[in-house]
Design a protein that fits this description.
- By secondary structure, the protein is α+β, with helices and mostly antiparallel strands.
- It folds into two domains: about 5-55, no CATH class; about 70-150, no CATH class.
- Helices cover about 35% and strands about 25% of the residues.
- The chain has helices spanning about 30-40, 45-50, 65-90, 135-150, and strands at about 5-10, 20-25, 50-55, 100-105, 110-120, 125-130.
- Strand 4 and strand 5 (about 110-120) form a beta hairpin.
- The longest helix has 24 residues, at about 65-90.
């Protein structure tokens, strides 16, 4: 059976191109790389030929795995920001103050872990937004619980 194959360029930073560079048809999955090297790659310009490639069957998932991971991380950061913003309302921080949220272990938190409002640019402690924790995993677990409570 013939399958369509997508050829993606791998950039020097290790990331894969979003769109396929080429598409071709070949029937034997076991010899796909040999066929690519012998028949498809020779049609590329010399500059492109020196690149690294990955080949995916057209009917398979084409998502880049690191993008999926980034999407999940982006969603978690959005929820984390929402939670920290809610706790920020209970502090003396004015709406015009430029702050970011973060988990710190510093003198300002008596050398414990705490989710805090930090001054933009300097990351100086402005206000505590969570209880203090002796262990980093406990602070992360607290945040995970807050995220679960959003639902």
């Amino acid at each position: 059976m013939n399958y369509n194959w997508n050829v993606y360029k791998i950039f020097k930073n290790g990331k894969r191109a979003k769109a396929p560079l080429a598409t071709f048809t070949h029937e034997d999955e076991a010899s796909i790389y040999e066929y690519f090297e012998a028949e498809v790659k020779k049609k590329f310009s010399e500059k492109i030929r020196d690149s690294k490639f990955t080949i995916l069957r057209e009917d398979a998932d084409q998502n880049r795995t690191n993008e999926e991971t980034n999407d999940m991380e982006d969603e978690r950061l959005k929820k984390q920001t929402l939670i920290l913003a809610r706790f920020l309302k209970n502090t003396g921080v004015k709406p015009g103050d430029r702050v970011v949220g973060g988990l710190i272990f510093a003198k300002a938190t008596n050398w414990t872990w705490q989710w805090c409002a930090l001054e933009c640019g300097t990351n100086r402690y402005v206000a505590g937004l969570s209880p203090r924790f002796d262990y980093h995993p406990d602070a992360e677990e607290w945040m995970n619980q807050q995220i679960q409570n959003l639902k």
